[in-house]
Design goal:
By secondary structure, the chain is α+β, with helices and mostly antiparallel strands. The protein is about 35% helix and about 20% strand. A hairpin with a 4-residue loop joins strand 2 and strand 3. The longest helix is centred in the middle third of the chain and has 19 residues.
Length: about 180
């Protein structure tokens, strides 16, 4: 089934790009020429719920991990303690900001239709689809999390298509003390 989904997405992208004219340039606004294996789905999926700030559960049973961003943990797990050790922040503070990020993602995405754009690597080690997510109104969810200060940039090569864009948004969020960057 996962291979069939990836094949369908890539087929849809190839068909889409082979038929589009300049009047549809907004569909390729974030297109990166080096990401040849990337796929942009024209199919819309419904978000069932936000698993956490950077992971969505779709109504078709798939889970989607947002590429290029990371939000604080919203549940007690081993990563929470690794993050606490790495950042010097206590677990309670991380959980609090993680809950805020999850709520932001929930309000932004739950029940909404989304379009997925993949990059070079299609799935992570947990089987989640790795994607840039766009709402039906073209809101770029990954970017909105960073812009609003609820996620920081977290890129893992080779999925780095929007790295520079995200870094600029993070810098602005920090300078403007948005979201958890406004916390003391």
């Amino acid at each position: 089934m996962p291979a069939a989904i990836a094949t369908a997405i890539i087929s849809a992208v190839l068909a889409f790009y082979s038929t589009q004219q300049d009047s549809h340039a907004h569909h390729v606004r974030y297109h990166h020429p080096k990401a040849i294996s990337a796929a942009v789905s024209t199919q819309l999926f419904t978000v069932e719920h936000a698993v956490d700030g950077d992971t969505l559960a779709l109504s078709n049973g798939e889970r989607v991990r947002l590429i290029g961003v990371d939000t604080p943990e919203s549940a007690v797990n081993p990563k929470l303690y690794r993050d606490a050790k790495r950042s010097g922040r206590n677990a309670k503070t991380i959980l609090s900001t993680g809950a805020q990020a999850k709520l932001f993602t929930k309000k932004l995405c739950e029940g909404r239709k989304v379009r997925l754009e993949t990059d070079t690597v299609l799935r992570d080690k947990y089987g989640r689809i790795l994607a840039y997510v766009f709402l039906d109104d073209q809101t770029f969810v990954n970017a909105e999390l960073v812009r609003s200060g609820y996620a920081h940039v977290y890129t893992i090569s080779p999925n780095v298509k929007y790295k520079d864009y995200f870094l600029g948004l993070e810098r602005e969020a920090r300078e403007n003390r948005k979201g958890f960057w406004g916390k003391g």
